[in-house]
Design brief:
58 residues; mainly alpha; 2 helices; 0% strand
Amino acid sequence: MKIVKFFKNVSREMKKVSWPKGRELTSYTITVLTTVAFVAVFFAVVDLGITQILNLFF
């Protein structure tokens, strides 16, 4: 019976959530994808730099 109460509480809380509208969702999605791409490129450049430095010594 605890599981039923849990899911009732989850359902009640989900109704309180403020879901983003279409434009907000698009804006948030673009922001997330841009951030992920930037971080991926940043770490790729750092990785290449470290690789080049290590290749000089070994």
